Amino acid sequence: MKELQQRYLKPKKNRKKKSNMENIYSVLITAITVLGSAAAFRFYEKKSLRKERDEEFIRHDCRDRISKLEALLVASSKEKDEMRKMIIDMTAKVAELTVKVEYLTRENDKLEKALPKAKRQLNG
After folding, report:
1. CA 8 → CA 11, 15, 22, 38, 54, distances in Å?
2. Residue 8's pLDDT band (boundaries 50, 70, 90)?
3. With bands split at pLDDT 50, 70 and 90, how would you rate the model's confidence at 59?
4. Cβ atoms 101, 93 nearer than 8 A
5. Would you list the domain boundaries of the chain?
6. What are the helix and strand counts (H, E) for the chain?
7. How far is Cα 15 from Cα 11, in angstroms, rounded to an integer?
8. 120 Cβ contact list (under 8 Å, min separation 6)
9. Largest interatomic CA distance in the chain
């Protein structure tokens, strides 16, 4: 029985030492975990802020680009309308000139028929 008591009593003393060491380890691990989690929290917080700033920059950049594109669209629309008017004016002038050429060609043909052949030969 004494042997059993000695076996179990000695480890109790060691157990106290072990439990104290375990407590110290637990405290150290807990402290490291707390410090690590605080650092991780700061890291993720900074990362989140950086992401927000990047998204805000992208939003502003997109707004600027959209406003520039809208201005270009308005300008090109005005230019297109001006060119359309110019094309309409030119088409009218071409039609007018075509009519004049046709009229002058007919008049030339009439005059050539009216002139005697001999005079044409002398002039021609």
Report:
1. 6, 10, 20, 43, 65
2. low
3. very high
4. no
5. 2-123
6. 2, 0
7. 6
8. 112
9. 163
